[in-house]
Amino acid sequence: MARQARLKSKSGIYHIILRGINRQVIFEDDEDKLKFLECLCYYRNVCDYTVYGYCLMDNHVHLLIKESEEEIASIMKRIGVCYVSWYNRKYDRCGHLFQDRFKSEVIEDDAYLLVVLRYIHQNPLKAGLSTKFI
User: Fold this and answer.
1) Distance CA 43, CA 7 (A)
2) Which domains does the chain show, CATH number per domain?
3) By C-alpha distance, which of 63, 66, 73, 74 is closest to 121?
4) In the chain, which residues have pLDDT < 70?
5) Of the candidates 100, 75, 95, 98, which has an alpha carbon nearest to the alpha carbon of residue 3?
6) What's the rounded Cα separation, in Å, for the pair 81 and 125?
7) Cβ-count burial of 70 within 10 angstroms (0-12 exposed, 13-18 middle, 19+ buried)?
């Protein structure tokens, strides 16, 4: 059975979720998180997208991204390959790191954009990893 086509955002804005395979940890330490952010920043310059918000949890990632010329699928492929290649070399492993393909939710209006941005930034608080919202 073919997988369902991804919804295309008219605004170009997406809430992206990447989860570790079997919900495993994808960031073992701060160096891993910094490397993911390096990949995100590097391809932001290459693909010309805008990052409105992000949250890196131990076993998943939330991104709020506005695509430009390059489609979100291509952007996420570049970021994923960059990070997973580095991660696999660092931890002497091979294979997939992320569960399935990334999840994406279209953002079509400013009100919903603010709801999603708040949700992303409150994620560590709701998970009990922080006691205050910064």
Assistant:
1) 22
2) 13-126 (3.30.70.1290)
3) 63
4) 1-2, 124-134
5) 100
6) 29
7) middle
